[in-house]
Amino acid sequence: MQVLAIGEVLIDMLGTATTDPQAPTAQIFQPFAGGAPANVAVAIAKLGGRSALISKVGNDQFGRFLVNTLNNYQVDTQYVQQSEAKTALAFVSLDDSGERSFDFYLDNAAHTTICAEDIAKVNVGDDTIVHLCSGSFSTPGLSASAQALISRAEQQQSVLCMDINYRPAFWKKDTPNIAQSIFEAAAQMHIIKSSNEELEQLYGEQSEEVIQQWLSGTVQLVLVTDGAQPVRYYTNAFNGECQVPETTVKDTTAAGDSFIGGFLYSMSQSITSFHQFSAFVEERQRLLEAVSFAMRCGAVTVTRFGAFEALPTASDLT
Description:
This protein has helices at residues 36-47, 61-72, 116-119, 140-156, 178-186, 196-203, 207-215, 255-270, 277-282, 284-301, and strands spanning 2-6, 10-17, 27-34, 50-58, 76-83, 89-94, 100-105, 128-133, 159-163, 191-195, 221-226, 229-234, 239-242. The chain is an alpha/beta fold. The strands form two sheets. The chain has a nine-stranded mixed β-sheet, sandwiched between helices. A four-stranded mixed β-sheet has the order 3-2-6-7.
């Protein structure tokens, strides 16, 4: 199966501390290609799978760099278009434990100009996994394009997957009820992935109830990561958790993207169409093998700096 991701591809300006004794708190920022949906597409391609990205970049040096980089990783870029807007930037600072904080520069960002008309050019089928993040619902225009893609995927019986990947900076401060908007978007999926932190931030003590509400509809699998704590999985047939491999953390920037990318890659190698998806989810052993593979991908990624560069190849996992 091919994984088709939609959303931002941007420049991660990754900060590292200087060694200048006159400026002990200063950082040097180095550009890396990134963006959660793009990370997932690259994660799958690096593992040997088939992936494509729907996005837009600026007609600027960063945009050209991003498209060239995606092509170098064998991601299908036929749906990555140029925009008159500028390529988005994200400044990423790391603390001593490798946890990151973000400052996004998104005003007039190219990926926010993805529109429903762009989706009309996209081919999907029952052998496609469509992957979205909550950022694709953060503006009216992006939400319209995401909904157009979801409608196409439903008509063609594609598997729908969403990583909550909540970034408050993507949303206008006056946006009404962001948590409800994300809940409703996720409820249209077959697979949902979230971090425990994101669920608590959005839904607080109601997180478990929200998961069960999702599973009462079209959602068949919910995956919840929690840093070094066990990964939890929820289906309508069974729930459980898996212990995360021990590792030395340097940078968590692409950890979640590596996890869901690894999971979707593993699943795409196990099934060939949407019609086999339910059986895959209901078979605990096959599901756990995919979760275990995804955790190994994440464990490798956090030992490296950057996003695309940090994602593992198949040989890294042998």
